[in-house]
Design a protein that fits this description.
heterodimer; A: mainly beta; five-stranded antiparallel β-sheet; 11 strands; 0% helix; globular; B: mainly beta; four-stranded antiparallel β-sheet
């Protein structure tokens, strides 16, 4: 079966760095997406990786290792507004997104 | 551009009632999707459409129906609502299947 695993909840301090991990087992691979979802709102796109390596976009970076079925999202210089859930999703061989349950990130002052 | 819009934002249904969740996008996207999101679980695909007149089942289609008569609109129909359909429903769209999906604000449905 297809499976996406990510931690349920993480806590970090304002101004610090946090890494959210995602491991996956899917039928085929056409890319991995990270979305941010604030409570009560829609998911919004953060990043996309289809090749191995690191993609940097401002304070956010995303890493992919296809051979290990592993990705992480790195958030630097954390701000209170970064408190949200972070969703990992893999696009399978049918171009359908398989979603993890999300990681709730709590930022403390 | 409004992007993806959904109505209503919140609805309470009684068991056995039916309703239609509306979804409209103004980005001229070919692909549209309906997901449900339950607490502690990942988004689950209900139905999707690759263009006007073409729809297909996703992972959890039972109890739902869709239609796609225009590029812009992709309504989701619930027949004979059940408590198991209590969820948050998101509509999404993209220009091509391998591209980023853009989400509407969601509809919160409570079936009692």
């Amino acid at each position: 079966g297809q499976n996406i695993d990510q931690p349920t909840e993480m806590t970090a301090t304002e101004g610090a760095i946090v890494q959210i991990n995602c491991t996956y087992q899917t039928s085929g691979f056409n890319g991995l997406f990270w979305y941010q979802q604030h409570a009560g709102e829609a998911p919004t796109f953060l990043s996309y990786n289809v090749l191995d390596g690191l993609e940097e976009k401002g304070r956010f970076s995303s890493f992919l290792s296809r051979s290990k079925g592993y990705s992480y999202l790195l958030l630097k210089e954390l701000q209170m507004k970064d408190s949200a859930s972070y969703l990992c999703a893999v696009m399978d061989s049918n171009y359908q997104l398989i979603w993890g349950a999300g990681t709730k990130l709590i930022i403390k002052p | 551009n409004a992007g993806v819009t959904q109505t209503p934002k919140f609805r309470i249904l009684k068991i056995g009632q039916s309703m239609t969740l509306q979804c409209t996008q103004d980005m001229n996207h070919n692909y549209m999707y309906w997901y449900r999101q339950d607490p502690g679980m990942g988004l689950k695909l209900i139905y999707y459409s690759v263009g006007a007149g073409i729809t297909d089942k996703g992972e959890v289609p039972n109890g739902y129906n869709v239609s796609r008569s225009t590029t812009e609109d992709f309504p989701l129909r619930l027949e004979l609502a059940a408590p198991s359909q209590t969820s948050v429903y998101f509509c999404a769209s993209n220009r091509a299947e391998q591209e980023t999906q853009y989400f509407g604000p969601g509809t919160r449905l409570l079936v009692l």
